Amino acid sequence: MTGRPDHRGAALDAVGSPPRLSPLGFGASQGGNLYRATSDEDFAAAVDTAWAGGIRYFDTAPHYGLGLSERRLGAALRSRPRAEYVVSTKVGRLLVPSPETAHLRDPEGFDVPADHRRVWDFSRDGVRRSVEASLRRTGLDRVDVVYLHDPDEHWEQAAHEAVPALVELREQGVIGAVGVGMNQSAMLARFVAETDVDLVMCAGRYTLLEQGALTDLLPAAQAHRVGVVVAGVYNSGLLARDTPPTDAVYDYQQAPTEVIDQARRIARVCQAYGVTLPQAALAFVRRHPAVVSTVVGMRDEAQVAETLRRADADVPDQLWAALYEAGLLDVQS
Q1: Which of 271-310 are b and which e, b meaning 16 or more Cβ less than 10 Å from the residue's Cβ?
Q2: What pLDDT, on a 0 to 100 scale, did the predictor assign at position 157?
Q3: Does residue 268 carry a pLDDT above 90?
Q4: Distance from C-alpha of 288 to C-alpha of 24, rounded to nearest angstrom
Q5: Cα 181 to the chain's mean position, in Å?
């Protein structure tokens, strides 16, 4: 079937149920000045444009700009009807004041003063302290989804302390759903199978370029009825342009030549079907039945408007068959 994917929809499910996400989500890492500064006005305009376009799911984290993203997102949403949107944030990195480095810039890619430092902590106390701090920064009465943020090196503490701590908060009504967000699919599949999570956020491992999550995470999510939120749909930028440039970024670093060549081959097939590479990248991940939302990072009004246009594109089913037959897709979606 050919048609426009609907990114609009109700944000919240019935009371007592996990929140229901709008199919297209707003990623607020740029609101934390990722890579370069963004003004308060530009970020507020981005949220306004997203809201007008039907987006009702907004994702942030303490890590993003050492709390700046959370503060800006809370301010931008404060006047909106609280029952009409979903906010997710993350735990695992506590922000600790660091006045001795406040004259420096944050070393982790955000253009903000290094007046705090991140401390890994997936303990029960650390999780509760992190959620309390996020509530203060956002000014919200609750957080709808809380993800463990990149627990790759912390399985034991994350699985046996952090998840139970979030389950307690879920049962108390402080949060709506428990999740895990990572840049890998294998450990996410383990969280799905072995812990009490409602959602997982998988960044970069289920995209038009690579479909590793098909072998572990996505089957596990379907089996355990856990929703999958796909982030990193453009693989850090490689799939964000109609034709990937020679200096394209993949997994947060310069893309290897062979990866750029593969992306360009995909782009040529897309062009033959009247579809751009970014349009196909968005449409592909949203077709899988386990995927409940796709989060795209957006900095300003123009980026939001472009993302909405891409999400509304008509993408013919024949494209997926052509990519599969060309050996450019692991599954005939």
Answers
A1: eeeebbbbbbbbbbbbebebbbbbbbbbbbbebbbebbeb
A2: 98
A3: yes
A4: 14
A5: 8
- The runs of H, that is alpha helices, within the chain are 40-52, 68-77, 124-138, 155-157, 163-172, 186-194, 217-224, 257-272, 277-286, 301-311, 318-325
Catalytic residues: 64
Residue 13 or 164, more confident: 164
> What is the enclosing helix (H) or strand (E) of 95?
strand 93-97
How far apart are alpha carbons 100 and 49 in whole angstroms? 39
Cα 300 off chain centre by: 17
CB 250 within 8 A of CB 181: no
Q: 7 pLDDT band (50/70/90 cuts)?
A: very low
SS3 325: helix
DSSP SS3 for 313? coil
Q: How confident is the model at residue 330 (pLDDT cuts 50, 70, 90)?
A: confident
Q: How far is the CA of 263 from the CAs of 9, 185, 213, 231, 268, in angstroms?
A: 32, 21, 19, 18, 9
Each residue's pLDDT tens digit, 196-214: 999 999 999 999 999 999 9
**What's the distance, CA 145 to chain centroid?**
12
> In the chain, pLDDT over 70 holds for what percent of residues?
94
pTM score of the predicted model: 0.93
Torsion of CA 80, 170, 152, 248, to 10 degrees: -20
Query: Largest Cα–Cα distance of the chain, in whole Å?
Result: 59
CA quadruple 93, 28, 198, 144: dihedral, nearest 10: 90
Three-state DSSP string of 200-246: EEEECCCCCCCCHHHCCHHHHHHHHCCEEEEECCCHHHCCCCCCCCC
- Whether the pLDDT of residue 17 is over 90: the answer is no
Q: Is residue 133 predicted with pLDDT exceeding 70?
A: yes
pLDDT averaged over every residue in the chain? 94
Which residue in the block uniquely carries the two structure tokens 């995927």? Answer: 291
Nearest 5°: phi and psi at 116? -135, 160
